[in-house]
Amino acid sequence: MAVPKRKVSHARKMKRRSSVWKLEAPTNIVKCPQCGEPNLAYRVCKACGYYKGVEVAPKAAAQK
Question: What count of other Cβ atoms lies within 10 Å of the Cβ of residue 29?
Fold first, then answer.
């Protein structure tokens, strides 16, 4: 009968278990209604600076 000779350390056990889980693609990527760039949901668009149709972060070119 197979019996472990020594206790398996926490790090070794967690390293073995971690190989089972895979990274999943983010599901909260949506298209910005203002410029059409892919963007995380509920975040200010990095390309145009709009959030919910309101410009909240003006771009550097507009400030000059």
Answer: 10
